[in-house]
Input
Amino acid sequence: MKVQQLIRPEILRVTPYRSAREEYRGKEAIWLDANENAYDIHQNGLNRYPDPLQWELKQRIAAWKGVSADQIFLGNGSDEAIDLLIRATCRPFRDEILITPPTYGMYQVLAEIQGVGVQRVVLNDRFQLDLPRILSAISFTTRLIFLCSPNNPTGNVLQREDVDTLLKNFPGLVVIDEAYIDFADDPGWLAGLNDHPNLVILQTFSKALGLAGARLGMAFAHREIIAVLNKIKFPYNVNELTLAAAHRALDQLPAMQRTLEYIREQRQWLYVRLKAHPDVVTVYPSQANFLLVRFRHAASILRHLLQRGIVVRDRSRLPQCEGCLRITVGTEEENRLLIQALNEWELVQ
Ligand SMILES: Cc1ncc(COP(=O)(O)O)c(C=O)c1O
Output
């Protein structure tokens, strides 16, 4: 693969800001390079800038995921990776990304903010890729395809053969957003990373790993793509508190596995009860930690839940999602209260 062909020429020409710390990997040193306050007045180590390339954390993630550390980018949520991928590949007012609605909203928002066009090829009625329409929509200005599997808000995994066809036939980058992969039975695409130089996989610490408040996202890709993302990111994009929280999360992986089991059980518990509700048309099977539910009277249900202090996500205006609410699997108690509130709903015309 020629990275040159995937990346904007002006980005290739940028000389990045370099921190002196990128050149020094040791821990002990007299740090007189970054104009920090040398006195740790708050006694928390935060008087120093964090490691710009987060090497220690990347080594641990690399061992855990079976990739090499230079195939990993870490950012301020996966949203940062989405933003940088668009910046790296699309020239404003010339190039386009392709998305497959209904899907995660930030691909379109971040493209629009950057003056990048958005081609939208709606998923079919099984929420799978409409391959013929995608292949005919792709043009020489399509630089990036965003796929999401398990897909938000529909909860299903995209068929492997379809994704494989795109990886083999699309000359730009194919991004597979796997924010919810830990909740799925599907292994995802990490094992295919070395077979597809145009593949980028996004994962996050915000969902199964339980650190949404810390803001830490991961992108896995060919090392040359990762090098470009590192070149255009803010120098200290992941802060020290987040790095420490991520290390603690990696110490606690068995605990995470246990909560995954609970969440999957609770997903099934909710699925059965939602399906039995008189206003429910469909509960879509989910491989994520939420359920997409089609109601006959979604607006009335939404209002009723809000009156009970229960907030769910209205997805009814998205294509193929008329009457649909997206409901996150909560704790056992929260799920019980949700079902109780739904059972007390009465249609007020
Ligand atoms: C599919 C998908 N990708 C990415 C994100 C954002 O993740 P992060 O918190 O890592 O920015 C979300 C958040 O809801 C999501 O649903």
Notes: The pocket of pyridoxal-5'-phosphate is lined by residues 77-79, 104, 148, 152, 177, 179, 204, 206, 212, 217 (CB under 6 Å). The longest strand covers residues 142-148. The mean pLDDT is 96. The longest helix spans residues 253-275.
